């Protein structure tokens, strides 16, 4: 006699699409493998952990290729195939490419850093934490329910705290980790409260169901739903380093090991912005009249404060190049917010969000390239001041030319065509949405940014002080600089490729 419980139990058993979840899963498995291997490898063979990590990240990135043939979803509700916890669509794949590619380049930079005895970084812990953070970052763009979204956000963030403060005996590194930790914990607490309010008012955590139910919330719960929306947005604003939640960025970037600063500037931003896009465009489109103006105001504030902060980093005052890149990343975050805000004012939200994704891809390549050259300079000058870049062309012509190209891309000037196209795409998103004032604010900030980008570029070609000294460049660092340089030049030759890849059929 069959039990009446059996059909119900069978209905709760879900089939897992292992191919869809392969990229973050492989990264997590490699992280565990590195952790176990670290227990048995002698100190002189710890370099194998770095090679294994690079191979694992490369394999995870290659696993995105079979997913290009169509959208795939798994962990879905029985009876509602559109309410899923994990979806591998075009948006997911583009962000996962950015995350895994950024983590791979960070790993190449890290191999050289870990070999330097002055850095005092434990190899096993470093690689495990980096891979764990990358696994969480790769999971986040595929998350389609609020619970998975928060879990992925914390899996990406918690290892990053430890990475920032991993440098033993370094007071500045510990202080940077503490600032980063406190700000991020605050953001998480605010986000969790917002998510709990949204769940209480709608009765679901799935983004598609939230989008359907939240416009029809009962009057008694309407205030609760509005509060939940606002708190959720505030939490993600912390993660994106939007002003006024940016205060941790400069000190954290300067105090962290340089590869981790590069990782936070690209992968950390990808995590924050992909989560923000999912919550607003997918989960809360009916509240566009709330988050649209808020994000537009944040965009202007963020780009202005970031660019003015970078403008103050003058070479004559021996400011750190990494600190300038930190302030620059805050300014770039403002540009990334513009299309998301614009999506609230247009019927073609997908195209507007595509501009943010395309800009993020461009920014990821050239910013990682700039950090790679900074890592090269930092091998000889640990302080990595802007004055250390004077006459770099005489010491290393190729590195100087590539850094100049990366800076021109960030400024949006030829021959950095990909940077120009990305800025035009963001500018067009604001204009098409009828936000002329936002487009004007962006144009003013682009002009402000030209000054410090061009000032740094000119410094590379000035006469060096003293005799130029050539330095041997390790193979992993050479690979990172070459890879970012080739990608930036190739994309500048065909910028429409990025715009078409990132803008079509995201959701």
Can you describe this structure?
- This protein is mostly helical.
- It has a domain at 284-507.
- The chain has 20 helices and two strands.
- The chain has a two-stranded antiparallel ribbon with strand order 1-2.
User: How many strands, which pairing sense, and closed or not: the largest β-sheet?
Assistant: 2 strands, antiparallel
* Widest sheet: strand ordering: 1-2
Number of strands: 2
Cα-atom radius of gyration: 23 Å
Class per helix and strand makeup: mainly alpha
Distance between the termini: 47 Å
- Outline, from the CA principal axes? globular
EC number: 7.1.1.-
Pfam family, one: Proton_antipo_M
Keywords: Cell membrane, Membrane, NAD, Quinone, Translocase, Transmembrane, Transmembrane helix, Transport
Enzyme class: translocase
């Amino acid at each position: 006699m069959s039990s009446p419980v059996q059909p119900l139990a069978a209905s709760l058993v879900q089939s897992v699409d292992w191919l869809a979840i392969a990229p973050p899963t492989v990264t997590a498995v490699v992280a565990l493998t590195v952790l176990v291997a670290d227990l048995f490898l002698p100190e002189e063979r710890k370099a194998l952990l770095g090679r294994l990590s690079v191979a694992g990240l490369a394999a995870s990135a290659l696993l995105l290729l079979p997913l290009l043939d169509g959208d795939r979803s798994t962990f879905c509700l029985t009876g509602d195939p559109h309410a899923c916890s994990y979806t591998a669509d075009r948006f997911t794949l583009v962000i996962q490419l950015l995350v895994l590619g950024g983590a791979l380049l960070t790993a190449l930079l890290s191999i050289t850093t870990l070999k330097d005895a002055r850095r005092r970084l434990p190899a096993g812990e470093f690689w495990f934490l980096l891979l764990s953070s990358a696994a969480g970052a790769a999971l986040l763009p595929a998350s389609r329910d609020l619970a998975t979204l928060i879990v992925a956000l914390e899996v990406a963030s918690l290892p990053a705290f430890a990475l920032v403060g991993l440098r033993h005996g370094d007071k500045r590194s510990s202080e940077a980790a503490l600032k980063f930790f406190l700000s991020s914990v605050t953001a998480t607490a605010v986000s969790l409260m917002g998510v709990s309010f949204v769940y209480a008012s709608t009765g679901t955590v799935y983004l598609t169901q939230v989008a359907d139910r939240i416009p029809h919330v009962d009057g008694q719960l309407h205030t609760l739903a509005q509060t939940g929306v606002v708190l959720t947005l505030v939490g993600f604003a912390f993660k994106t380093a939007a002003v006024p939640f940016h205060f941790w960025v400069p000190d954290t970037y300067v105090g962290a090991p340089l590869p981790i600063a590069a990782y936070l500037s690209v992968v950390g931003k990808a995590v924050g912005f992909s989560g923000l896009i999912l919550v607003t465009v997918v989960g809360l489109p009916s509240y566009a009249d709330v988050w649209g103006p808020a994000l537009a105001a944040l965009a202007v504030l963020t780009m202005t404060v970031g660019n003015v902060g970078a403008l103050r980093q003058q070479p004559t005052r021996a400011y750190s190049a990494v600190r300038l890149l930190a302030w620059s990343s805050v300014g770039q975050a403002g540009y990334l917010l513009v299309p998301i805000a614009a999506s609230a004012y247009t019927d073609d939200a997908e195209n507007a969000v595509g501009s943010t994704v395309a800009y993020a891809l461009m920014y990821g390549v050239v910013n990682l390239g700039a950090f790679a050259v900074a890592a090269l300079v930092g091998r000889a000058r640990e302080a990595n001041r802007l004055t250390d870049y004077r006459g770099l062309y005489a010491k290393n012509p190729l590195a100087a030319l590539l850094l100049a190209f990366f800076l021109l891309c960030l400024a949006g000037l030829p021959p950095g065509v990909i940077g120009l196209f990305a800025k035009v795409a963001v500018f067009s998103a604001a204009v098409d949405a009828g936000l002329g004032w936002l487009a004007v604010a962006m144009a003013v900030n682009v002009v402000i940014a030209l000054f410090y980008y061009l000032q740094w570029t000119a410094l590379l070609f000035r006469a060096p002080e003293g005799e130029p000294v050539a330095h041997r460049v390790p193979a992993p660092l050479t690979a990172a600089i070459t890879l970012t340089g080739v990608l930036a030049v190739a994309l500048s030759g065909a910028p429409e490729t990025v715009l078409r890849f990132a803008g079509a059929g995201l959701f």
